[in-house]
């Protein structure tokens, strides 16, 4: 399974078109399926195969309310539980994409999630907070508490 970009990166993708797309390979990456659009909106994504066999996708959510989100697939990425999208953070930026009260451009994202030995999840990402400093931040959480 892979998530893919819809552009070469040489041009900016309009904000409303930043849904995640996926493809999969059944032969170790020699060939890939047709790309299909998911209902997850954000970027960049990180995929994690959980010990349960479920797949978790965490991603930066760069529209109001800005933050970090995650979504679960229980069927090998055939479908995603978008109605139960998990909000890990929703305090990333103001509505105009700047740091609150500063007018400074802000950014967030690049989440990476690991499953800890006790079954809890630990997601690390970066975000610019109200002090205009970009921080590495993390959220420890559990699927049954999300």
Note down, in words, how this protein is organized.
There is one protein chain. The protein is mostly beta strands. It has one domain: 6 Propeller (Neuraminidase), CATH 2.120.10.10. It has strands at 2-4, 19-23, 36-41, 45-49, 55-61, 67-73, 86-89, 108-115, 121-128, 134-141. The strands form three sheets. A four-stranded antiparallel β-sheet has the order 4-5-6-7, with no helix packed on it. The radius of gyration is 16 Å and the shape is globular. The two termini are 24 Å apart. The model has no long low-confidence stretch (mean pLDDT 85).
Low-confidence segments, ≥5 residues, pLDDT <50?
none
The overall pLDDT, averaged over residues, is: 85
Work out the helicity level.
under 10%
What CATH first level would be assigned? Mainly Beta
Provide the CATH topology: Neuraminidase
Strand percent estimate: 35-45%
Return the structural class: mainly beta
Q: Using DSSP, what is the number of strands? A: 10
Overall geometric form: globular
Number of domains: 1
Strand order of the largest sheet: 4-5-6-7
Largest sheet: 4 strands, antiparallel
Over all CA atoms, what is the radius of gyration?
Answer: 16 Å
Note the gap between the termini: 24 Å
Tally of separate helices? 0
Order of helices and strands: EEEEEEEEEE
- What is the CATH architecture annotation? 6 Propeller
């Amino acid at each position: 399974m892979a998530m893919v970009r819809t552009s070469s990166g040489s041009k900016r993708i309009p904000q409303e078109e930043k849904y995640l797309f996926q493809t999969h390979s059944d032969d170790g990456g020699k060939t890939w399926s047709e790309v299909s659009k998911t209902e997850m909106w954000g970027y960049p994504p990180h995929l994690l195969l959980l010990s349960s066999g479920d797949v978790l996708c965490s991603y930066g959510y760069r529209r109001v309310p800005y933050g970090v989100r995650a979504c679960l697939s229980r069927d090998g990425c055939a479908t995603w539980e978008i109605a139960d999208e998990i909000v890990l953070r929703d305090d990333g930026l103001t509505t105009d994409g700047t740091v609150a009260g500063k007018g400074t451009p802000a950014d967030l994202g690049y989440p990476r999630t690991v499953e800890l030995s006790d079954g809890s999840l630990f997601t690390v990402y970066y975000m610019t907070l109200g002090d205009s400093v970009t921080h590495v931040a993390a959220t420890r959480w559990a699927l049954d508490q999300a």
